[in-house]
């Protein structure tokens, strides 16, 4: 679908059937390009996964509106409490009157139950949520890569894992969907900016994610990836253990 805002170069493209990546390039500093992605899941009860930071709300909304009116959104989900994950949550709840936040039990207890303008729907480990025509499953993943409240969503018909900050790549993430090497760039970036908590449960958590056998990894920073997700999550676990 392409560029939706010339000023910010926000753009939208499909990564799996009815699943759209909204990408905005940003600069960490004058030498380091980066990007923020949100994912829009078309369904009878549509879902936006990650809101983007509050300051990007107008351009992310503009991109969503290319696919559907924002008022149709029923769920606004995210991995954990940080501005790029959920900074504009209340702005989305204001423009989508039937939408509720989706988060982990820890997320609701520590933050979202207080700061969200409507109570969240809490998802427990392995819980499946029917979006109408497709469903998503929640995996708790505390501290992997960071955030006590962290978790991931998995869309089962396209086997798309919304993997949040896992495989964070530097750069603008121009390619919507790649089959190339994302582990190399993300591991190189981690050497410079280590965003992992390195919690004791990291290996077993990645193994649980791998067991879902994802075919698309919907990364929050950089390109989405298509391929053998079970293998790539195993490669990530080995790189982190090394
Ligand atoms: Fe994060
Ligand atoms: Fe993030």
Overall average residue pLDDT: 97
Q: How do the helices and strands follow one another from N- to C-terminus? A: EEEEEHEHHEHEEEEEEHHEEH
Tell me, what's the shape?
globular
Rounded Rg: 16 Å
How far do the termini sit from each other? 40 Å
What CATH calls the topology is Metallo-beta-lactamase, Chain A
Percentage of residues in helical conformation: 25-40%
Describe the protein's architecture and organization:
By secondary structure, this protein is α/β, with parallel strands linked by helices. It has a single domain, classed as 4-Layer Sandwich (Metallo-beta-lactamase, Chain A). The chain has 7 helices and 15 strands. It has helices spanning about 55-65, 85, 90-95, 105-115, 185-190, 200-210, 230-240; strands spanning about 1-5, 10-15, 20-30, 30-40, 45-50, 75, 100-105, 120-125, 130, 135-140, 150-155, 160-165, 175-180, 215-220, 225. The strands form 2 sheets. Strands 1-2-3-4-5-6-7-8 form an 8-stranded mixed beta sheet. The longest helix is centred in the last third of the chain and has 13 residues, at about 230-240. The relative contact order is 0.15. The mean pLDDT is about 95. The structure holds fe (ii) ion (2 copies).
